[in-house]
Amino acid sequence: MHDAIAEYVRDGLSVAIEGFTAFICFAAGHEIIRQGRRNLTLIRMTPDLIYDQMIAAGVASKLVFSYLGNPGVGSLHCVRRAIEKGIPAPLEIEEYSHYGMIGRYTAGAMKLPFFPLRSYTGSDLPRMNRQISLVQSPYSEERIAVVPPINPDVAIIHAQRADAEGNTQLWGLLGIQKEAAFAARKVIVVVEEIVDQSIIRADPNRTLIPGLIVNAVVHEPFGCHPSYVQGYYDRDNAFYLAWDGISRDQQKTEDWLQEWVFDVKDRSAYLEKLGKDVLSRLDPGDAPTGSLNYGAYT
Amino acid sequence: MHDAIAEYVRDGLSVAIEGFTAFICFAAGHEIIRQGRRNLTLIRMTPDLIYDQMIAAGVASKLVFSYLGNPGVGSLHCVRRAIEKGIPAPLEIEEYSHYGMIGRYTAGAMKLPFFPLRSYTGSDLPRMNRQISLVQSPYSEERIAVVPPINPDVAIIHAQRADAEGNTQLWGLLGIQKEAAFAARKVIVVVEEIVDQSIIRADPNRTLIPGLIVNAVVHEPFGCHPSYVQGYYDRDNAFYLAWDGISRDQQKTEDWLQEWVFDVKDRSAYLEKLGKDVLSRLDPGDAPTGSLNYGAYT
Amino acid sequence: MTPDYTSSEMMIVAASRTLRGARTVFVGVGLPNIACNLARHTIAPDLELIYESGVYGAQPARLPLSIGDPTLVTGALSVIPMGDLFGYYLQGGWVGAALLGGAQIDRHGNLNTTVIGEYDSPKVRLPGSGGACEIAINARSTLIIMRLSQRAFVERLDFLTSPGYLEGGTSRAGRYMPGAGPMQVITDKALFSFFNDDREMQIDALYPGVSIDEVTAEIGWPIRQHESIFEVDPPTDDEIRIIRTILDPEGTVTGRLA
Amino acid sequence: MTPDYTSSEMMIVAASRTLRGARTVFVGVGLPNIACNLARHTIAPDLELIYESGVYGAQPARLPLSIGDPTLVTGALSVIPMGDLFGYYLQGGWVGAALLGGAQIDRHGNLNTTVIGEYDSPKVRLPGSGGACEIAINARSTLIIMRLSQRAFVERLDFLTSPGYLEGGTSRAGRYMPGAGPMQVITDKALFSFFNDDREMQIDALYPGVSIDEVTAEIGWPIRQHESIFEVDPPTDDEIRIIRTILDPEGTVTGRLA
Question: Which residue of B has its CA nearest to D179?
Fold first, then answer.
């Protein structure tokens, strides 16, 4: 992880750590904080706790997003503090709806000049964000809203498993990870397990991201805690609740960052500090899919 | 099958039997021929043998497509005869490239006024098909090609399995089936197996078509022969080769239709006539996926 | 006599009853989630829950903590990329009803979830649209769930995030907004609709024991009243039993919001 | 001395050699399929095969009979909807090289696969574009494989299905055509390129034993010649062995096309 972040996430670049509620790679976010990156443009539909922490640590100068919330809990206090009071530093924002962000990633991935969507009619959003525009349909009177492509410099995607070349399989909430990866100039894949390529090839419809577009594969078990990985561990909701208290205060937030990010060397040290009890509390139990037949066709 | 076709496929409607090389529901096509439908608009990226047979039988007055071929073999002689000589009846055509057809289905499914794609520049296709148009991007000088939505009256999709409500799972070539189903006004799903809903729910990422949009579920094992169903049976390539000979002659074609469509009551009778040896020759052998864990999360 | 249910429970029950016979509902967590699940247990047994996280036909084995809870994935009918959910399901016209909320609402059912104060120097920065803007435009109808208060029911929004009936009347017509707009506003004291030519919010019904004055006092404009306001039936024993024993046995939602 | 290989085998070998070091190739069945697999066994071991049917990284266990053969699915790295293949892979810029063919080609590498004669009253109705039109525009480069003949190498196409260099020169520039256009035309007698300012087809190399006159006789316009035409190396023993023992042991492709 250290090397992948050091090589691809440079000061001033745009970075998308994606995963909707699930698969949020806190390990990568913490490593970016630890390496002291500055002036990043952070892109994410739902900034979640990971960007709350990164913004509190001062890595970002701009945020592109569609929903600011601690899911199921409340506000992202650090992001609000940056927007409302410029603490620890002013934060430029560029704001869309969910489908607008989805459209931006999709257009970026498909190298389209724009993505059309039925949204924004009557809303104040286009007034505040001039990137949202309109296009006249040649087939009717309709003028439809469009958003421009987005191509992050780096996308970081967490998944259950990949082979050594980065052919990546994911099940559960697929979010916008495929689109973000294809839209990005560089892709870092972080996985719970690195598996033999034969396992990937045994179920090719499950492959969301091909190794072709992947620049680095990082093996980082429990890399999403306190977020979750379907079938591997549950969300640590106690932490999401606790963060609501910690994050209301900049000093308390900085103390937390010191203890849980700067003072731990890497993800292994973080997990050791967290303790086995927490991880075993998050065991999801079993719900197997069963096996299918693709046919040998020899 | 008889009832689903009788209820939803009426004279003069537009029908899309989709599936790219794979999952082509010959059982539905034959039933449409048997019921003597007329003036259908047939929509399909690759008309394949099924539309060759249907057009030779005189069910269609128009064809919307992107590639006319007997895959891996050669021409579709019946379609050519209709276009070149008006036999058995003149056939209007409306022609796109593959991505153009994909875009039409996608816009139809997403209720978009148009779908933008980087194609057609310098090609004669837009001259012959005025539906292909251009749209000015608000973000650059680019004028990009667009195609209009298509919404077939009926889509017929074959798959490995569905539950009784039509929640449908499919693995192998996914083609454009999801888009065609969502674009259509009515959807008929034809499956090799009807399974308990718990089997569908055990692997929710595998569900391509939700029962919500399905009007009829038909259980028709081997319903795709001579096409194939991944993991269930192989393509009957001997028939694809034989068709090249049969289809060169309208009389021979009509004799074949008499013998294999009109003179067999339904798919069971067809399979019985075909014989067990053919079906066992098409057994694909085993290539299992293995089972995954979604986690119980109770 | 103190009623043996909380105002949150009454809201849940009222919301669930609006889903009678519905086939699909686009749902958030918390109170709306319980309302939808209550409807499945009572007057809409075929109701399928759709979450913007990409889940269709969820069957949660526990109370979901967010719209991205893994318990919504396991056992669902279909789990898909968010682009498919917004493109094929929502924009495709397959979302029957959608539940929305907000920090502010105006007389035409327009919602603000973006900011209190100026956009560029906000007093309170709210979450933003999420999917609400396109849901408000594309869902066949929307149901709005909010607690009554002068701060929330305002003469003028600080920011229009998600359109209701815009300027009222026929403002939605001819603007390629496929959905019909808000059908009902469900609060902790009364139910409102927009069933008039101006598409202006009106009091349709009061919860048991609530007076008109208690309602109008919480609204920042002179609220219209339907000519014959009725009283909502209180929760049935069955509804309360399902909420308390099946849907929220620990009172996480009903307790917190009460 | 009769050479111990067929012209089909020479074409396959020549096509495979153009893929040296390539990472991805968009491939059809038949001769192009064998050429790509030969490249994987020889000079492009990391080459991944992409099929428009939605397959990336195929590892066919038998000779595929069509681009939709189930043997391309089983054991592939990824199998996806066609919209993703055309949108994310092809238009996204991830297809390095693509093999195309056609019934007619002109001096600027434009291809006709639609019709011989008038579009509205065709002498021969051909298959049409399939994916070729967008492949010709978006693939980083294309390789054209066709047998030489006066009927195929024509002064004027009956229909322009898939653009090469259009009117030649810089015609592709400024028209939002991300791909560079045709790099090479591989025939049964000679190799051609477009490496000149006019982007006009020129003879670069002859197969062993083929004369310039045999080539020019099959081309419907005065064909340019590179100033130093070279002779292509004949197939190596290894190349022939791989074709005959591994890729097409029954001679289905090499035999049929020979």
Answer: B118
List pLDDT tens digits, range C222-244: 999 999 999 999 999 999 999 99
What mean pLDDT is predicted for residues A11-27?
Answer: 98
Q: Which amino acid is at B81?
A: R
Backbone dihedral angles phi then psi of residue B40, each to the nearest 5 degrees: -75, 150
| Model confidence, pTM | 0.97
Q: How many degrees, rounded to 5, is the angle at CA D102 between CA B44 and CA B72?
A: 55
Provide the pLDDT for residue D255.
65
Asked if B67 is an interface residue toward chain D (Cβ–Cβ < 8 A), one would say yes
A114 at the B interface (CB within 8 A)?
yes
Residues of CATH 3.40.1080.10 domain(s) within chain A?
2-95+151-281
Asked if residue D120 belongs to a domain, the reply is: no
**What would the two tokens of residue A18 be?**
């994606």
Is C52 noted as a catalytic residue in this protein? Answer: yes
d(CA C65, CA C140): 27
Taking the Cβ of residue B102 and every Cβ of chain D, the question of whether any pair is shorter than 8 Å is answered with yes
The verdict on a CB contact (< 8 Å) between A297 and D69 is yes
Q: In this predicted complex, what is the ipTM? A: 0.96
For chain C, the distance separating the N- and C-terminal CA atoms, rounded to the nearest angstrom, is 18
Query: Does the pLDDT at position C249 exceed 90?
Result: no
Q: Give contacts of A 193-252 with B, CB under 8 A.
A: 199, 202-203, 205-206, 230-232, 234
Collect all residues with Cβ–Cβ distance below 8 Å to C137 and sequence separation of at least 6.
Answer: A118, A119, A121, C162, C163, C177, C178, C179
Instruction: Select the CATH number that applies to the domain covering B2-95+151-281 from these four: 3.30.420.10, 3.40.1080.10, 3.40.50.300, 2.40.128.10.
Output: 3.40.1080.10
- With an 8 Å Cβ cutoff, are B114 and A297 in contact? no
Indicate the helix (H) or strand (E) that contains A3. helix A2-8
How many structural domains does chain C have?
1
Closest-approach residue (CA) in chain C for B105: C88
Which of B111, B112, B207 lies at the smallest CB-CB distance from C77?
A: B207
pLDDT at D257 over 70: no
> Residue B41: helix, strand or coil by DSSP?
strand
Compute the average pLDDT of residues D210-235. 96
Quick check: C256 pLDDT over 60? no
Which residue out of C133, C158, C257 would a mutagenesis test of the A interface target, given it has the greatest number of A Cβ atoms within 10 Å? C133
What backbone phi and psi angles, to 5 degrees, belong to B263? -85, 0
For C225, the 3-state DSSP assignment is strand
Tell me whether residue D158 is in a domain: no
CB-defined contacts A:D, below 8 A: 73
**Nearest by CB to B95, which of D55, D128, D171?**
D128
* Among candidates C54, C86, C125 on the partner chain, residue whose Cβ is nearest the Cβ of A99: C86
| Residue C67 resides in a domain | yes
Low-confidence ranges of chain B (pLDDT < 50): none
- A174 neighbourhood in chain C, CB within 8 Å: 54, 79-82
In this prediction, residue D250 has a pLDDT band, given cuts at 50, 70 and 90, of confident
Range of the domain at D168: 7-100+131-145+163-247
The rounded distance, in Å, linking the Cα atoms of B36 and B41 is 14
User: Residue D223: phi, psi to the nearest 5?
Assistant: -80, 140
CA closest to A290 among chain B residues: B291
CATH of the domain at C62: 3.40.1080.10
B39 touching chain D per CB within 8 A: no
d(CA D65, CA D30): 8
State the catalytic residue, choosing from C52, C200, C218, C239. Answer: C52
Which positions of D are catalytic?
Answer: 52
Q: Is residue C197 part of a domain?
A: yes
Q: Look at residue C248 in the predicted model and tell me its pLDDT.
A: 86
**Interface residue B258 vs chain A (CB under 8 A):** no
Half-sphere CA count of C154, side-chain side, radius 13 A = 15
Chain C within 8 Å of A287 (Cβ-Cβ)? yes
